[in-house]
């Protein structure tokens, strides 16, 4: 009998959403599963990406050196690259996956960076055995309603509040 794939949602204003998703990717790869990761908003060098790729994860992400959207004052709804995530997501969905991770799917939805119908179908109409992970600052209601696991990350304290910048190997 085929196992049912479940939907994981890590959301909120706290640190750890992507970290949790990548930890699950590592666990799945270690168990021989096929992993596909889409990072809608992240580019540049993040320590886990080369290792996950070496282990066999198929990774689709922003351009190298691209800033996180919240770090670029010029970005905002009017400056987002329209449906730039749609092409990336279409390519990712063509890959066979036991685990599909859609990192910052909530922001891609909110900022209209991806075809919303494509994103919703990729999640809600995925193959029955496919596990899926979504991360979001603000999760749209349909994600909250559909999630089998819903974990809210709540920021109580963050080093940014003391002026401490992101550190290689810890925050990225």
Structural class: alpha/beta
Strand content: 15-25%
- Mean residue pLDDT: 87
Gap from first CA to last CA? 39 Å
Number of strands: 6
Query: Which outline best applies?
Result: globular
Low-confidence stretches: 64-82
The succession of helices and strands, N to C, reads EHEHEHEHHEHE
Biggest sheet architecture: 6 strands, parallel
Question: What topology, given as strand order, has the largest sheet?
Answer: 3-2-4-5-1-6
Percent range of helical residues:
25-40%
Q: Looking at the chains present, what oligomeric state does this protein adopt?
A: single chain
Using only CA atoms, what is the Rg?
15 Å
Give the count of helical stretches.
Answer: 6
Descriptive report:
Helices cover 30% and strands 17% of the residues. The model is unreliable at 64-82 (pLDDT under 50). The relative contact order is 0.25. It is globular, with a radius of gyration of 15 Å. It contains six helices and six strands. The protein has helices spanning 17-30, 48-54, 84-93, 105-110, 116-124, 141-146, and strands spanning 7-11, 35-39, 58-61, 99-103, 131-136, 149-152. Strands 3-2-4-5-1-6 form a six-stranded parallel sheet, sandwiched between helices. It is α/β, with parallel strands linked by helices.
């Amino acid at each position: 009998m085929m196992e049912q794939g479940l939907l994981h949602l890590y959301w909120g204003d706290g640190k750890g959403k992507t970290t949790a998703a990548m930890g699950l990717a590592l666990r799945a790869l270690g168990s021989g599963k096929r992993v596909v990761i889409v990072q809608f908003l992240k580019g540049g060098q993040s320590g886990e990406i080369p290792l996950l790729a070496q282990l066999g994860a198929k990774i689709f992400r922003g351009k190298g050196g691209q800033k996180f959207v919240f770090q670029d004052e010029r970005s905002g709804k009017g400056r987002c690259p329209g449906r730039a995530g749609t092409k990336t997501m279409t390519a990712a969905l063509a890959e066979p996956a036991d685990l599909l991770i859609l990192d910052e799917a909530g922001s891609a939805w909110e900022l209209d960076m991806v075809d919303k119908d494509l994103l919703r179908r990729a999640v809600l109409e995925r193959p029955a055995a496919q596990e899926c992970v979504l991360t979001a600052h603000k999760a749209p209601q349909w994600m909250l309603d559909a999630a089998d696991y819903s974990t809210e990350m709540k920021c109580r304290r963050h080093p940014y509040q003391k002026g401490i910048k992101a550190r290689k190997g810890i925050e990225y």
